[in-house]
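> example.struct
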């Protein structure tokens, strides 16, 4: 705690007896983190069949951690920092065990942008228990006795020596064992994001480095020359497009895609009788909401950087600039910056559908007329785009996504520790959320159809999910694995479109033609350009190669 001086009072002298050097905090904590703090990592490394790789990796992890902690061994910093790291490692371990999650920069961004409801959904009794088991012993050790510090110069020397020993140890084992580590890194990339708590340190640093310049730079304008182009003779009512951003719906469980269970009965009816078109081969831009939602509205394709933090304005800015009425209605954790410059709202609280601040998705539809009426009349006379951001199949509490009378598949998994549920029950609760999404889309189509019948609008609907979901395939649950090695379940999403006869006439897009082309691969890259095409917005930002309506006339 303090250095000894001849005039130290007896109390300080007594604590001096029990005080210990910073290295007695640094090294035990590093050893604990490298072993007990990384059980999911070691489990995974052993699972993929390499005890040699595990033995080779554990020492470098220890060495790097010890080096890092040694450099940060300063009074009032070391012990709080060590405490934070063991707690972080404990939380990470829990979510890795439970859901097969890994911690990379996008997962970290997701965590930082999540809201109370999402966090609440992830809380279970096993969480405090795992945190206590993993973080409890080192916390006790860290705070048990005071630390004695040297003068700044002496401490600097000690810290550098500690860091040198840690790095030397890491290199001494990593270099001869390079072949094991290289093949592990090459063949099992997620492993690198499982190293606690270095994964979190790395992800946080990346996030800060990415976001700091973003916030000071204004967004690059897009489609500054955007204008509405309509056929001169069009005596049609104005277009009204509802763009539904789905949540966590995966293509594999979408009835219209050939899933063994009838999870989309309403969509199937609209497809058979009313010209709804299903796109069975649709791919998401990201594996989590934080990446996918901005990317869906970005003028950039995924390849061009649409999956990176937005530097450009988006689809809604261009639609609004062209003179259309635009609104974002959110039943989830916000629009991730997409709706920053257009009107936005949450569904009106409805006691039948909402509990606290959480509403079933039907609430989105009930308030449509009310929300529409708040938009500028002149803009509406040119056309309207309403974005509905669903709660969809947001996990792990799938069982909360549908009301009791709309759950055909029983019994459900009613816990959030998904690994504890029989796989059939898990599938039941997930499928019920898809059935409810199908129901809500049906209500939206009914609402739009009424507008078509009354001749007040030329309506249409596009529904596309933001990303998919893992339901225990390969012991992986939820979503958010790094895109490059995320399983296909997290990347394939449902996409449907419906154009009323009036909108088909107005846009020139024939549903029959669209259906013939629907089997071709499409992705989030297409959304920006296709909506502009459908709404008749002409701008240089529109890339016809990515307009999925183009071959059919828009
Ligand atoms: Zn999402």
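> example.seq
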């Amino acid at each position: 705690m303090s250095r000894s001086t001849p005039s130290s009072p007896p109390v300080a002298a007594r604590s001096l007896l029990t005080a210990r050097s910073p290295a007695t905090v640094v090294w035990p904590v590093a050893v604990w983190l490298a072993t007990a703090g990384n059980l999911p990592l070691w489990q995974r490394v052993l699972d993929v069949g390499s005890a040699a790789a595990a033995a080779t990796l554990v020492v470098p992890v220890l060495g790097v951690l010890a080096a890092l902690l040694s450099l940060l061994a300063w009074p009032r910093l070391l012990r709080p920092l060590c405490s934070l790291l063991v707690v972080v490692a404990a939380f990470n371990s829990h979510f890795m065990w439970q859901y097969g999650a890994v911690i990379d920069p996008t997962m970290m961004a997701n965590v930082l942008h999540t809201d109370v409801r999402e966090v609440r959904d992830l809380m279970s009794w096993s969480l405090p228990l795992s945190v206590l088991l993993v973080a409890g012993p080192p916390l006790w050790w860290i705070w048990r006795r005071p630390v004695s510090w040297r003068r700044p110069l002496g401490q600097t020397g000690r810290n550098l020596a500690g860091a040198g020993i840690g790095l030397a140890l890491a290199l001494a084992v990593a270099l001869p064992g390079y072949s094991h580590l290289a093949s592990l890194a090459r063949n099992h990339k997620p492993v690198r994001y499982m190293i606690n708590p270095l994964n979190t340190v790395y992800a946080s640093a990346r996030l800060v480095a990415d976001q700091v310049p973003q916030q000071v730079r204004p967004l690059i304008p897009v489609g500054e020359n955007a204008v509405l182009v309509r056929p001169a003779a069009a005596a049609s009512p104005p277009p009204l497009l509802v763009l539904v951003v789905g949540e966590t719906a995966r293509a594999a469980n979408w009835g219209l895609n050939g899933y063994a269970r009838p999870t989309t009965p309403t969509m199937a009816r609209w497809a058979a009788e009313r010209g709804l078109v299903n796109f069975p081969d649709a791919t998401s831009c990201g594996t989590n909401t934080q990446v996918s939602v901005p990317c869906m509205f970005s003028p950039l394709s995924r390849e061009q950087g649409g999956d990176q933090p937005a530097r450009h304005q988006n689809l809604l800015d261009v639609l609004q600039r062209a003179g259309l009425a635009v609104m974002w209605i959110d039943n989830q954790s916000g629009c991730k910056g997409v709706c920053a410059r257009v009107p936005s709202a949450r569904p009106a609280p409805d006691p039948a559908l909402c509990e606290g601040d959480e509403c079933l998705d039907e609430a989105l539809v009930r308030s449509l007329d009310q929300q529409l009426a708040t938009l500028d009349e002149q803009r509406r006379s040119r056309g309207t785009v309403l974005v509905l951001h669903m709660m969809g199949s947001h996990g792990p509490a799938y069982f909360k996504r549908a009301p009791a009378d709309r759950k055909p598949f029983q019994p459900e998994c009613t816990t959030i520790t998904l690994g504890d549920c029989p796989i059939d029950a898990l599938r039941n609760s997930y499928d019920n959320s898809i059935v409810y999404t199908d129901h809500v889309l049906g209500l939206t189509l009914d609402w739009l159809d009424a507008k078509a019948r009354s001749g007040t609008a030329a309506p249409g609907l596009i529904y596309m999910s933001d990303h998919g979901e893992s339901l225990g395939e390969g012991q992986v649950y939820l979503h958010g694995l790094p895109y490059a090695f995320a399983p296909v379940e997290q990347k394939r999403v449902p996409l449907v479109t419906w154009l009323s006869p009036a909108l088909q006439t107005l846009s020139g897009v024939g549903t029959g033609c669209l259906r013939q082309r629907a089997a071709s691969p499409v992705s989030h890259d297409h959304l920006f350009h296709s909506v502009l095409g459908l709404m008749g917005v002409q701008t240089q930002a529109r890339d016809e190669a990515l307009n999925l309506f183009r071959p059919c006339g828009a």
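> remarks
The first helix runs from residue 10 to 18.
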